[in-house]
Recover the amino acids of this structure.
């Protein structure tokens, strides 16, 4: 049985959930990955609310395997400033006091685990933020002690969250991504070590955030076979020749043609998805393949439909026998 192909709804947050269901069904998707806060209010606790969501999804034959809380999670470990106000709900932002924002975001992540359990799913995808991302380029020189403190801060803030997840039977999958505590293979290992390989902590694998950095995005799968909790199928293009704006982005918006790299609709960038499928087959990943559609230069409906078709084309089940087993004579 092929893996379910789902559509992440964060990029469709301007539309009601029912409309997203209608479109996803028409595009050919098997289910949705619900994005907070637009399509799920985790402050709600009544069973009827979650039953209504499940009934709506069922009416469109949409599976639900995951909910995602990227925007809220970003505020847990980040150094809070005015940028966060634009991505956080008012009840999380409050009066903007940095520690208060981080604490309210942490509480919201725990509420999200309760919501996941109410919806019958066991995986929450999200961000962590990072108190040390601004140390990325080591000048003025960054000491090892400063970096260690950043991972210690992550452990202090996230271990209580992960403990709550474990009690509920829910896992947290960090999307390895620039601005997070883990943004490549080495920092992903450090994040795991920081939380003592907590059983509820793993990764949402998204090759688009690794490829343009020069990180071996296929090898990442082999490095963390037990910690790939969820998969985003997203493409990215990077140039074969120098550009005016390099890897760091040059303070220009996504989609600007002067950039060295830009996210693109699936199949229109540089990511080798067949190699990803082969690696996922090797580690035994059987969860959803969720399309996170981002392409500033393309119509999103055309892109989402095309991406669904391509994921189903790329995906294949592993063989249960060697190809040359039939050569043997009994």
């Amino acid at each position: 049985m092929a893996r379910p192909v789902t559509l992440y709804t964060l990029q469709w947050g301007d539309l009601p959930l029912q409309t997203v269901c209608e479109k996803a069904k028409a595009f050919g998707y098997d289910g949705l990955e619900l994005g907070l806060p637009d399509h799920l209010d985790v402050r709600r606790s009544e069973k009827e609310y979650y039953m209504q969501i499940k009934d709506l999804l069922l009416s469109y034959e949409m599976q639900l395997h995951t909910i995602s809380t990227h925007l809220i999670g970003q505020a847990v470990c980040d150094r809070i400033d005015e940028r966060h106000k634009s991505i956080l709900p008012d009840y999380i932002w409050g009066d903007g006091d940095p520690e208060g924002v981080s604490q309210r975001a942490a509480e919201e992540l725990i509420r999200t685990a309760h919501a996941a359990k109410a919806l019958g799913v066991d995986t929450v995808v999200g961000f962590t933020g990072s108190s040390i991302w601004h140390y990325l380029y080591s000048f003025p020189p960054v000491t090892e002690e400063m970096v260690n403190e950043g991972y210690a801060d992550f452990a202090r803030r996230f271990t209580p969250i992960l403990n709550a997840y474990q009690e509920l039977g829910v896992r947290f999958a960090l999307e390895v991504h620039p601005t997070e505590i883990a943004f490549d293979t080495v920092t992903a290992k450090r994040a795991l070590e920081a939380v003592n390989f907590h059983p509820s902590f793993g990764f949402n694998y998204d090759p688009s955030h690794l490829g343009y950095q020069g990180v071996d995005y296929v090898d990442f799968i082999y490095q963390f076979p037990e910690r790939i909790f969820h998969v985003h199928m997203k493409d990215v293009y990077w140039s074969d020749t120098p550009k005016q704006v390099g890897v760091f982005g040059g303070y220009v918006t996504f989609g600007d043609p002067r950039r060295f790299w830009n996210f693109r609709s699936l199949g229109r960038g540089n990511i080798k998805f067949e190699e990803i499928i082969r690696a996922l087959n090797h580690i035994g990943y059987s969860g959803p393949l969720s399309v996170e559609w981002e392409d500033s230069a393309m119509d999103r409906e055309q892109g989402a439909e095309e991406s669904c078709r391509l994921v189903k084309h790329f995906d294949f089940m592993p063989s249960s026998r060697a190809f040359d087993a039939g050569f043997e004579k009994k």
